[in-house]
Amino acid sequence: MSRYPGELEELFKALGEPGYRARQLFGWLHQKRARDFMEMTSLSSGLRERLREEYSISRPFVKKKLVSELDGTVKYLYALSDGEAVEGALMRHRHGNSLCISTQAGCRMGCAFCASATGGLKRNLTAGEMLGEVYETAHDLLASGEKLGSLVLMGTGEPLDNFDEVMRFMELLSNPAGFGMSLRRLSLSTCGLADGIRRLAEKRYPLTLSVSLHAPRDDTRSELMPVNRRHDIASLLAACKDYFEITGRRISFEYALMAGKNDGPQDALDLAALLKGMNCHVNLIPHNPVAERDFTRPSQETVQRFLRILESRGITATVRRELGSDVLAACGQLRNSGG
Length: 339
Hints:
Blueprint: H1 5-14, H2 20-30, H3 45-54, E1 61-67, E2 74-79, E3 85-93, E4 96-101, E5 104-106, E6 121-124, H4 127-142, E7 150-153, H5 163-173, E8 186-190, H6 194-203, E9 208-212, H7 218-224, H8 233-247, E10 251-257, H9 265-275, E11 280-286, H10 300-312, E12 317-319, H11 333-336
Helix pairs in contact: 1-2, 4-5, 6-8, 9-10
């Protein structure tokens, strides 16, 4: 499922079939999202049998589905062919449905507040497995007459740590002969791999880049996010500025507020000074506590004070609306609970 049309043409040539069969197969896989070669009725029965004998369509399936009674958020646990499992979260907004998907099984970034990193990295997902998360969710939405509006690569894993497969995923996702989703409707979130940000900039994709910052000073950020020991704040912001210069795309900085750790007035002032003059947006996220971690959520008053300080210093910021708190919507929680 993760082959480009040109690669499929080579496959059909090897089978002694005309090249247009590749376009038919690509459409069946990515537009009609067939699960079995026998569904592909525009192919001859003999060709379908041969494909079934020599190849397989490996796609995740929904192992568990939880629906929030608070806001309709849906948490999916997708089972992979080797027994691993990853998560996705469907969030319902006024502007449409947004799906957050995983790019790795586990994560090796080791962020101190994140449930995804507790078991380390198991393996990278393939482009086909990421597409499978999207297609399985899109199929589930059909039952209620709904569609998928946008995607966020912010589930389990660090997308830029699985760079090549994530790029292949995006190219297949946006192929007009397939699912055809514009990359303007996709957000990619990174914990701050500066070299990966520069590689992504060279692609010039029209996506939204979200960078997890979570602290305005290196000492605190290194404590929360070990990646800061390799890519400190200065090198990260330099990469972000280069990204904007190359792509012209405004960067969104994610900032999870944790009580007593990074939510004080001085933290807000330092953050405002750090980002002064950058074309960016700050997304404040009141921390969603997880059982595996020892951080707590700040009060609403603290969150609003932090927001006011940023705005008073000319920094554009908003507070993210909490969704799905009753269905373990934070990354890694459902997977870690045993599914």
